[in-house]
Amino acid sequence: MFPLEGKITNSTCSGYQDQHPHAILYNILSCRDSSHFKHLNATVHNCHCEQRRAVYLKNPQVTCQVASSVLVKTICFMRSLPSFSLLPSGDQSSLLRHCWVPLFVLGLAQEKMVFEVTHVPNSSILRQILLGSGLTEKEAEQPTLAGVHNLRTCLHDLWNLDLSPKEYAYLKGALLFNPAVKGLSALLFVEGLQQEAQRALQQVIHLLHPEDSGRFSHILLAASAVQTVSHSLVTELFFKPVIGNTNMIHLLTEMLLLQ
Predict the structure, then answer these.
(1) How far from each other are the two terminal CA atoms of the chain, in whole angstroms?
(2) Nearest residue to 108 via CA among 56, 163, 53, 176
(3) CB 197 within 8 A of CB 177
(4) Which string of b and e fits 8-22 if b means at least 16 CB within 10 Å?
(5) pLDDT at 200 over 80
(6) What is the pLDDT of residue 257?
(7) Phi and psi for 34 in degrees, rounded to 5?
(8) Does pLDDT of 117 surpass 70?
(9) For position 84, what pLDDT does the model report?
(10) Which of 34, 233, 241, 243 could be joined to 147 by an S-S link, Cβ 3.0–4.6 Å?
């Protein structure tokens, strides 16, 4: 129902394509061509690399506290659904693992959460030339400006729709009960629950916005975009400063099973 869309391409910087690496290194080390260095530096800051730069929260103490509150509400929503509790434990775990980020993003939108990020100090140009473009595993997991931009776009699209609490609730249900998740033992039951949530969402829309015939499709489009938000982005940006190296899925499972 909600196809994944919007992949970010990792294109090579055009600013480096026409430059001989040894000539660049020579000019930097010798400082004989300051105009060339300024051109190269400007290219680095204006090309696609800027979108791939790592970022972190500007005010992590406040933002992480709000994000943690949204996460708790997200898990409480899942626990409050009798139909979810009726699912086999394995299916509950699978749905939790695959769907917690879309539900969390809906929670951020519902709470009208605004956050600011700042760049992680960039590696020196000399280090980039000497070591190449390869990233360590830790660097690859860091939130990027492009990832944050995608998240903010999703939030603004949801804010523009101005969803009611009931619309948010039924949309969360439609995203949670996702029959596309692999390995579900109660697949038909989950599929029926998603259809039920969709019908309820349509009824609410018809009641609240009888004149807006395209609202349902617009909401589904926004829901599809929400699913493109990276799990690693959400974990690293909002929760890594709090939980450190704790496994996020293990933490969520404990929260779900908490009596």
Answers:
(1) 33
(2) 163
(3) yes
(4) eeeeebebbeebeee
(5) yes
(6) 87
(7) -65, -30
(8) yes
(9) 97
(10) 233
Quick: pLDDT tens for 39-73: 444 444 445 566 678 999 999 999 999 999 999 99
Q: Which residue has the higher pLDDT, 259 or 180?
A: 180
Cα 257 from Cα 64, distance rounded (Å): 23
Q: Which residue is listed with tokens 């972190």? A: 56
What is the chain's percent helix, strand, coil content, to nearest 5?
70, 5, 30
pLDDT at 202: 97
- 170: pLDDT confidence band, cut at 50, 70 and 90? very high
User: Residue 57 is inside which H or E element, if any?
Assistant: strand 55-57
Decide: helix, strand or coil at residue 54.
strand
Q: CB of 50 within 8 A of CB of 18?
A: no
Say whether 98 sits in a helix, a strand or coil. Answer: helix
Q: How many residues does the chain have?
A: 259
Distance CA 259, CA 181 (A): 26
